[in-house]
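Task 17 of the worksheet. Students: predict the tertiary structure of the chain below and write it out as structure tokens. Keep your answer in the requested format; marks are given for formatting as well as content.
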Amino acid sequence: GIQYIGFKLHKEEFLLPMSLVREIIMLTTITFVPGAKFLMEGIIALRGEIMPVLNLRRFLCFERGKADSTTRVIILQCDYGGFGVIVDDITEFVRLQPTEVESIPQNFFPAEYRILAGVSRVGDRIRGIIDLDKPLQEYLPKPVYEYKPTKKWHDNYQDLKEDTAYLKISARMCLNHTTGFPNWRWDEPDQKLRIKTTPGLR
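Model answer:
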């Protein structure tokens, strides 16, 4: 079986594979970063390492919560360092067999729940399993190239309409900086957004 860590967000319980987890820490001072991405709560310093902290409540459209004595930050590891995820509480460590994990019925959850790889059903307990390797396109209700930039400096994803390589990009690739995108499309002579290397490779 596969070992998972259980945690609570809002009133829901989720699971993450333990293979992704580096450590669990108590909530520490989070420094706000102006202009940061929507999911980024800020940055923390952990034993001299600066890392981003993500807020999954925003992704799942949960109301903003208040930190208390049970709030924790799960530090996940990627090739280029760690990053944190704020959770309300750690519930358990559990090993699940393949027969205890079920696929999610289509349209069973709201669109935001596309981040789930499946659900664990043990007795009456049902918990969503978060998947960082699912293609990001599966999280979205429409193709990425149909989204229009809301600010002048936002990238215009219409440039990807003829490029299907973006379909392979996962959340883990974004965190590992291995999406294949250059840091800025302004580096391109024609200022068009394009994937320069195979997603998933350095």
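Marker's comment: The mean pLDDT is 79. The chain has two helices and eleven strands.
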